[in-house]
Amino acid sequence: MTDLTKLSELSAQVRRDIVRMVYQVQSGHPGGSLGCTEFFVALYGAVLKHTPKPFRMEGKNQDLFFLSNGHISPVWYSVLARTGYFPVPELNTFRKINSRLQGHPATHEGLPGIRMASGSLGQGISAAIGAALAKRLNADKRWVFCLTGDGELEEGQCWEAIMFAAHHKVDNLIVTVDWNGQQIDGPTEQVMALGNLPAKWKAFGWDVLVLEQGNNLDQVVAMLRRAKRRTGKGKPVVILMKTEMGYGVDFMQGTHKWHGKSPNQEQFEQAMQQLPQTSLGDY
Amino acid sequence: MKLSDINSTGTRATREGFGAGLLELGRQNSDVVALTADLMESLLMQHFQKEFPERFFQCGIAEANMMGIAAGLATAGKIPFTGTFANFSTGRVYDQIRQSIAYSHKNVKICASHAGLTLGEDGATHQILEDIGMMRMLPGMVVINPCDFNQTKAATLAIADYNGPVYLRFGRPAWPIFTPENQKFKIGKALHLASGKDVTIFATGHLVWTSIEAAKELAEQGISCEVINIHTIKPLDEEAILDSVSKTRAVVVAEEHQRNGGLGDAIANLLVHRLPGPMEYVGVKDSFGESGKPVELLEKYGLSKKDVLWAVKDVLERK
Prior knowledge:
Chain A is of the alpha/beta class. Helix content of chain A is 40%, strand content 11%. Chain A has a single domain (3-274), classed as 3-Layer(aba) Sandwich (Rossmann fold), CATH 3.40.50. In chain A, helix 1 (3-25) crosses helix 3 (37-47) and helix 1 packs antiparallel against helix 10. Chain B folds into two domains: 11-176, Thiamin diphosphate (ThDP)-binding fold, Pyr/PP domains (Rossmann fold); 186-317, Rossmann fold, CATH 3.40.50. Helix content of chain B is 39%, strand content 20%. Chain B has helices spanning 14-28, 46-51, 63-75, 86-89, 94-103, 131-136, 149-160, 207-220, 238-248, 263-274, 294-300, 305-317; strands at residues 11-13, 32-36, 56-58, 79-85, 109-113, 142-144, 166-169, 174-176, 191-194, 199-203, 225-229, 232-234, 251-258, 279-284. Chain B has a seven-stranded mixed sheet with strand order 3-2-4-5-7-6-12, with helices on both faces. In chain B, helix 3 runs parallel beside helix 5 (94-103) and helix 8 crosses helix 12. Chain B is globular and about 55 Å long. Chain B starts with 10 loop residues before the first strand and ends with a helix. The chains are: A alpha/beta (283), B alpha/beta (319). The interface between A and B is large, with 39 and 32 residues.
């Protein structure tokens, strides 16, 4: 099996996990999770240098990842479990009482793989910058990655952080924007138009890469690797990654309506029929 | 210690104590880093910046981002000290502190200057009187308000050795120095300044000196005050408070803060369960401040020596 085949299989399994997790607890955010599945699988499966066990908060000489749009926790939890951070059956506890898998990611219960709580939006780029600065001070040559939503860029703190990173030449940092064009109340164009996003990032002094097919695993891996090669040149790097919310389940795809909604039994069964079973097996 | 032994050896601002402490810390611990949001010199951080430019981060006027960056630095093992005015260190960035620092238990030291009315002429937009309340409500947050230059310097050094989020509050004006140079600062340990039997005055920050002056005057009138410096509002030194109150059974709490939510409420919360009895607050009565000289403001808003005297007599009437 090629690496890409393995990663494709992992993507398929992660999608099944996402839908199951949200269905089981009748709560959670399937749309953005499905849309970012390729990103998480590519990042954890083919790009990050990381040590799941034992998990070290400081992550010295490892690549670090911060999720800013914390509501897409299902995809992160599934990928963390399936890359060895914690037992896969623990996905059963998602959003339930006494669980380490909080609705939005948190460090408070000690879930391995999480370095910062997120959910209240707009804070992740700042945290990632801080970690990148620490790596620079420590002469640690690894990278810091961050994923943020596109609607999330409506938060002013994002632009504070974007300005800071360019000014301080934080060039060991790769931010990816999940550019799905959707947010809770509708398309971003209607809720709060983002305008010319590449031009905005460029104007703030970033090296801007645009990925047209963020749900193509091969292309996501290639783009993340390309972004790494663009670092170290005095500019932070951003990947504006076009994805489709709800990708992989036809009735969830391309709409904001499945941002934070769980499927009923019929919809769950319908979704699972569309998502192929894998040799990894359901949890 | 006797009240008559407590004397001022000069005046300096508590923020200067922070600046001096931060510089010393920079020399002691290479993991200490500092950040500011365009208020470096107001917090006397330029000394650190000059000596350790690579460990100093100018964030511009963007406090929310500064808090997040501090949280990220802490995640990767640094000990970040953020420096801006108390107003911009708390209310403006409450959610960032709540999620990225307190809930995520990051080792960030939030150093907040120009707290309270004594900021003076800039007026109510900058005179935060709610910060202690906001910060002590956050689970796991340590809240410290030292009383003079020496104690602020000592507290700055001490919080670097504690692993967890800390809010360190200090002020703008030159203020009497009366605690020892190079003192050891123990987080959470109240300082017993003077023994007395009639009433206990618990004070924090600038109002500790005011309370000492009031207690001296009261002593001349035959009223014996115990004066305790509660430099750490959270965690509260419950044992010291209960020990003293079980003896005096009358309490006055003095602080440069709203009566709502501050040290007074923290002590009332303890005493209502353990030792209920007469208690008076010296604090701002649910009001914003205004422009003026620090001393004028303290008088107008009920935080002067006269107000402490009044509160003591009032509480003794109810004993």
